[in-house]
């Protein structure tokens, strides 16, 4: 069954997928589409339904409702169903387990059919691409974790899958190695034009890997967009807080304004009496020195400064994390360049940049 043959056709499309366990909808009406060569990250906290979504696309799990399409052709719906082995889909999961009795070449060749010379060519090409051609005759137990992961990637790519499903594939690696392998993996997948759906609970990984992030919570996609947009225009306080620490200033609206110790914030179109949260990331708080008990003058861009006393300051390498107690007893965190590490008890003035804060109705 073919729905559309447009060149702008998604390589993978899922429509209104639903899956329940014990009466609880763990995947609740999830839809998304991925173009060839595009990497989409399904990002969300543990248990939000990411892996179940991936397993339904792979065909390992059956959906209760919804449909899956590849290149405009139906893969499965309530009636029709292509079995897992018939889906042109590569899988790379955290427990990637290479076959221990097969060499690197044997592992990559596994799943390839055709003339031996052609197979050998493809194996060599892929091992070169993942930087493992020197290890072609080794066995898995002779390789480091990172090397095994590269071989697993080559193995998953060998049959030229149109779609690659990856579930936390880098989580067993240490930080530096993980960064390298992520970047290399991305390069290989882009070069192959594969549509990638990568599951992760790490916002940093999603921001680094994704062309598009689908932010998932309680079985639903709550926001979808490019990393820059998701980070800079979160749909709600929880979405903002998923990517970094946040500071929250509670306020009430009167006459389209929310008054706080940081001055007034414009909240047009919000009814009087509405409780709102003004949210600012620690790296966007502006800090200035105390001038004999006074702070800098108020401005339209930064509002009114509020006085804070340093409670704790930690050197973090490129940045310092400074925790403040404000005069009203509330706490705030700021991330500042590490050339500056104020001592406990130092008085400083904090400002909220109006172009960097988010204002959300307070959730119950
Ligand atoms: N076969 C199953 N039977 C019953 N419940 C299940 C089954 N598979 C998953 N669940 C439940 O469904 C929910 C979603 O699980 P899923 O593995 O999709 O989440 P996740 O977002 O991938 O989490 P994690 O990041 O921890 O892997 C969880 O509450 C999980 O316990």
Give a description of the structure.
The structure is a single chain. The protein is an alpha+beta fold. The protein has two domains: 12-88 and 161-241, P-loop containing nucleotide triphosphate hydrolases (Rossmann fold, 3-Layer(aba) Sandwich), CATH 3.40.50; 245-361, Nucleic acid-binding proteins (OB fold (Dihydrolipoamide Acetyltransferase, E2P), Beta Barrel). 22% of the residues lie in helices and 35% in strands. It is built from eight helices and 20 strands. It has helices spanning 50-58, 104-109, 116-129, 145-157, 175-192, 203-209, 227-232, 237-243, and strands at 12-21, 24-34, 39-43, 65-70, 73-76, 89-93, 163-167, 195-200, 212-217, 220-225, 247-254, 257-260, 263-266, 275-280, 285-289, 306-315, 319-326, 331-337, 347-352, 358-361. The strands form four sheets. Strands 6-7-8-3-9-10 form a six-stranded mixed beta sheet, sandwiched between helices. It has a five-stranded antiparallel beta sheet with strand order 13-12-11-14-20, with no helix packed on it. Strands 15-19-16-17-18 form a five-stranded antiparallel beta sheet, with no helix packed on it. Helix 3 (116-129) crosses helix 4 and helix 4 packs parallel to helix 5. Mean pLDDT is 91; it is low at 1-5. The protein binds adenosine-5'-triphosphate. Adenosine-5'-triphosphate (ATP) binds next to helix 1. Keywords: ATP-binding, Cell inner membrane, Cell membrane, Ion transport, Iron, Iron transport, Membrane, Nucleotide-binding, Translocase, Transport. Residues 12-243 form the ABC transporter domain. One of its GO terms (molecular function) is ATP hydrolysis activity.
